[in-house]
Amino acid sequence: MKTIVAMILLGKMAKVGVPVIDMQKVDGLGEALVKACVEWGCFRMVNHGVSVELMAEMKAVTASLLDLPEEIKRRTISTEQGKGYIERNPGTPFFETLSVDDIMSHDEFCDRLDASPQQRHSGIEPTNDYHKHTYACTPPRWYRASMGSQLIRRCPDPTYAEPKAQPQSLIGLGQAPTLAQGRRFTMYPIIREVIYEYIKAIRDLAELLGRKLMEGSGLVGDLFDGWCCQLRMNKYHYCPESVGLSGVGLHSDPTFLTILQDDENVNGLQVVDKYSGESLPFDPVPGSLAVNVGDIAKAWSNGRFYSVKHRVTCFEPKTRYSIVLFVLGPNGTKVEAPSELVDSEHPRLYVPIDIKEYRNVRTSKRLHIGNALDLFRSPAT
Ligand SMILES: O=C(O)CCC(=O)C(=O)O
């Protein structure tokens, strides 16, 4: 009984606690953002300027792309740490993610997923009656709910049979059909447009955040100007067996900040309270966007910002999607706290950090909860 009361109270606290910030607020926006970064390491944005239609379209694109056969998604695997397509694996059996590693090269990402004319005739896809079936195809299931754009046409082969139910093991549950099973895919220009528009809108929002964080810190300038950003499209393959288990385990982000479109229909994101260490629900609010502060922001702010630890837990057997923009850090220069944030009371905590090196150290030493920063401490501290 006590536990239930405590859980209800925590739920209430989280709703009251995690700041919700109106991005159209004229006065005090910078200060409100900095306060949220310091005290919570996370916040939710409303009136953020990204239209709900575009958010819905991007979710539809995400669902469609992650529904592609494995061999197509694998074309975007990368050898670089933290980049490229990550398929389900023993560490994260319910989690799968596609990545536009550098948002400036989203066209290259789309090209890789798209079947080129050469590939269409290479034997990877069946060649019989290709066009006939390409244009006489079944709309995807979200088609009617979207703006009426058919983003990917699924083209059933006349000889195609629905795959038999997969064995209910943790890995391999509900595997996407493979091309060998007879489906054909063509990426349509509208997919590129949606990805492009979404990246542009979220990037503009990130720039506003960067300017306001500077302002709230008593500085002036475009903090994120020219910085590297990565877009990830996540799918959580939840099923009855995953209820109560982790979709993604406890971690902080190795980024400056993360702008998250979480799934308005499926909760599960939890954040660790800076002061009490309690896990609190960070539940979705339709139409809003969430922000998590990462390790690089903690270093930049000379330890003021809280790099929030968070996890995603499965509470119900429903597929969950999320779309994240990682604002990683500057391109080609190291991150360090501006001199205005360093004084005798706040001595410089960290040496200048190269974001790529930071990510590699974090991964190789398995320091995923912000503790990799300890390896970048200034000698004096
Ligand atoms: O899917 C989510 O809601 C959060 C994903 C996440 O934790 C991350 O991208 O770091």
Can you describe this structure?
With 381 residues, the protein is α+β, with helices and mostly antiparallel strands. The chain is 28% helix and 18% strand. It has helices at 2-17, 29-39, 52-66, 70-73, 106-113, 117-120, 130-135, 189-216, 295-300, 355-364; strands at 20-22, 42-46, 95-100, 152-155, 184-187, 228-236, 246-251, 257-261, 269-272, 279-281, 289-293, 310-313, 320-329. A hairpin with a 6-residue loop joins β9 (269-272) and β10. α2 crosses α8 and α3 packs across α8 (189-216). The longest helix has 28 residues, at 189-216. It binds 2-oxoglutaric acid. The site of 2-oxoglutaric acid has 11 residues, from β8, β12 and β13. 2-oxoglutaric acid binds next to β8, β12 and β13.
Question: What features would you highlight for this structure?
Answer:
single chain; 381 residues; alpha+beta; seven-stranded mixed beta sheet; four-stranded antiparallel beta sheet; 18% strand; disordered N terminus; metal-binding; oxidoreductase activity, acting on paired donors, with incorporation or reduction of molecular oxygen
